[in-house]
């Protein structure tokens, strides 16, 4: 196999410009596709972190007597999946609101009556934080006679999930487009190299070289183009990643959630698919060429 | 070669035609070429000598008729087996067909690489065969930097390196002076005595006279068998 590798490297050196353009095209495709992947992975992490922080707020009916509160608290705490139920009286809630609003808190002073309800803040145990669980639990809590309304930030998270999925779809489409472009570029490069080497190929055939022997260096060339393109693309992504992550506001990335680079399996998969692009581009142009 | 009979034909042509459009390059050629024969195909320019050789290694198909090489019917050889047919031949092309971007060494080594030989063996054989043709000093030269005669010698080295059964040489002394031509003919004779069948296409009557062997004469695509010289 060594002569094939040698010939492939010779080819790349002799057609430096063509190969550079091809490798850059592959690198750009890989950069864009893996940037999307990186974005999805981190957004997914972020959404999971948010979900982990989900709490269900149960607003009690105003006529609920104070005496029933401890009983209710026990009931809620015994529900499946609940880790903690914290009672917030309407007075506490109002005070909280006042400290939160600071300067405008005088507006609240004029209230004749506290408009806020008593509330239970319910945290869930980590293992039962699928959406269905949250929904089921919320429904159960809502069925309690003292509970007027349940809220769990469902709507905006759901909407966000939808947007996220739409984004992901766009990412797939764009990725497919770029991969097609990369395949096209590789195929074209190999076609041009083949064309510039047609006499050599003809001579090789005349002295008894099989098609597989003639093809091998081109495949190796395609694989090298793919691997180099993949590595360069990922390296560029990493540089961009370092830049972006050092500029992300601290409070955004602390807590449950840390921005991270592509995990190793994805990294490896990207390199392999990049090499596949090189191989496929090669396959397409060789198939066409050696038929003649 | 399993066949030990001296006069067995290794190449047989039956009523072979080759047309290029309306032009008839070869017309009704029937010819046996025998095992370990030293055969000249003579004829003026345009007679069809190169065309005849091309049909043997399937560079081109016959328009009509049949050719057997080593018992194989060429019209029945599947595409993927053509390389194996070609490895039976060592071919010195009229225009050398050296790869201009590869060194002398690489050009000659190519035959063995394509046949899947080991690197060490290739190295040994290439050096030895280049020594035989007197080109061992030019291993790393590119063909364009060689004289016509030197290129021809490299072409001969490439033709014989695979120990072929049959050597086809198309004007192998075409661009050589008398001394260099003698050297090349001596070389081909040497491979002949080692058991190869040698077929030489040439229009050089003096060369044929000097060398000796069976001669078949081509004229305007037709074969005229002449007695041995
Ligand atoms: N590919 C081709 N297309 C059309 N005509 C061809 C082709 N190849 C050969 N011919 C014609 O066939 C005839 C025989 O050509 P060929 O090359 O076999 O001659 P030759 O005997 O080898 O001549 P020379 O001694 O000049 O090499 C010529 O008239 C040539 O013009
Ligand atoms: Mg000729």
Summarize the model shown:
Chain A is α+β, with helices and mostly antiparallel strands and 292 residues long. Helix content of chain A is 72%, strand content 8%.
What does this structure look like?
The complex is a heterodimer of chains A (292) and B (229). Chain A is of the alpha+beta class and 292 residues long. Chain A has two domains: 179 residues, no CATH class; 97 residues, Alpha-Beta Plaits (2-Layer Sandwich), CATH 3.30.70.3040. Chain A contains eleven helices and four strands. A four-stranded antiparallel sheet of chain A has the order 2-3-1-4. The radius of gyration of chain A is 31 Å and the shape is rod-shaped. Chain A starts with a helix and ends with a helix. The mean pLDDT of chain A is 83. Chain B is an alpha/beta fold. Chain B has a domain of 156 residues: Rossmann fold (3-Layer(aba) Sandwich), CATH 3.40.50. In chain B, strands 6-7-8-3-9-10 form a six-stranded mixed sheet, sandwiched between helices. A four-stranded antiparallel sheet of chain B has the order 2-1-4-5, covered by helices on one side. In chain B, strand 4 and strand 5 form a beta hairpin. In chain B, helix 3 crosses helix 4 and helix 4 packs across helix 5. Chain B is globular, with a radius of gyration of 17 Å. The N terminus of chain B is likely disordered. The chains are: A alpha+beta (292), B alpha/beta (229). At the A-B interface, helix 1 and helix 8 of A face helix 2 and helix 3 of B. The structure holds adenosine-5'-triphosphate (ATP) and magnesium ion (MG). The site of magnesium ion has 4 residues of chain B, from helix 1.
């Amino acid at each position: 196999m060594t002569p094939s590798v040698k010939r492939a490297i010779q080819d790349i050196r002799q057609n430096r410009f063509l190969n550079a353009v091809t490798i850059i095209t592959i690198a750009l495709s890989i950069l864009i596709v893996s940037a999307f992947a990186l974005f999805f992975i981190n957004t997914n992490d972020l959404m999971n972190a948010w979900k982990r922080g989900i709490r269900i707020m149960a607003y009690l009916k105003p006529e609920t007597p104070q005496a029933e509160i401890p009983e209710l608290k026990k009931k809620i705490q015994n529900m499946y999946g609940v880790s903690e139920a914290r009672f917030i009286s309407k007075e506490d809630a109002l005070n909280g609101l006042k400290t939160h609003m600071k300067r405008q808190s005088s507006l609240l002073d004029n209230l004749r009556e506290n408009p806020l309800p008593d509330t239970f803040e319910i945290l869930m145990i980590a293992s039962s934080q699928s959406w269905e669980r949250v929904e089921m639990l919320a429904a159960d809590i809502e069925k309690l006679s003292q509970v007027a309304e349940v809220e769990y930030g469902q709507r905006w998270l759901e909407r966000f999930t939808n947007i996220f999925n739409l984004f992901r779809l766009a990412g797939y489409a764009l990725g497919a487009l770029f991969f097609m472009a990369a395949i096209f570029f590789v195929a074209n490069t190999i076609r041009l190299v083949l064309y510039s080497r047609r006499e050599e190929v003809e001579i090789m055939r005349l002295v008894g070289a099989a098609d597989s022997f003639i093809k091998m260096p081109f495949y190796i060339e395609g694989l090298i183009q793919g691997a180099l393109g993949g590595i360069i693309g990922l390296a560029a992504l990493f540089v961009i990643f370092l830049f972006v992550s050092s500029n992300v506001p601290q409070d955004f990335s602390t807590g449950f959630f840390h921005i991270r680079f592509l995990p190793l399996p994805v990294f490896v998969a990207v390199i392999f698919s990049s090499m596949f692009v090189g191989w496929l581009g090669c396959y397409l142009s060789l198939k066409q060429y050696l038929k003649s | 070669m399993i066949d030990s009979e001296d006069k067995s034909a290794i190449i047989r042509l039956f009523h072979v035609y080759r047309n290029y459009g309306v032009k008839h390059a070869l017309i009704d050629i029937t010819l046996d070429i025998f095992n370990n024969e030293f055969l000249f195909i003579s004829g003026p320019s345009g007679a069809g000598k190169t065309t005849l050789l091309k049909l043997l290694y399937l560079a081109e198909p016959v328009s009509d008729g049949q050719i057997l090489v080593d018992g194989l019917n060429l019209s029945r050889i599947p595409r993927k087996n053509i390389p194996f047919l070609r490895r039976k031949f060592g071919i010195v092309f009229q225009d050398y067909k050296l790869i201009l971007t590869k060194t002398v060494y690489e050009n000659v080594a190519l035959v063995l690489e394509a046949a899947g030989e080991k690197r060490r063996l290739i190295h040994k054989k290439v050096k030895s065969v280049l020594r035989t043709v007197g080109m061992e000093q030019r291993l790393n030269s590119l063909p364009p930097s060689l004289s016509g005669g030197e290129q021809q010698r490299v072409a001969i080295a490439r033709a014989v390196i695979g120990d072929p059964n049959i050597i086809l040489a198309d004007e192998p002394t075409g661009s050589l002076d008398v001394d260099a031509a003698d050297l090349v003919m001596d070389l081909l004779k040497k491979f002949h005595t080692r058991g190869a069948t040698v077929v030489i296409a040439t229009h050089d009557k003096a060369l044929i006279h000097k060398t000796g062997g069976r001669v078949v004469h081509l004229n305007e695509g037709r074969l005229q068998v002449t007695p041995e010289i």
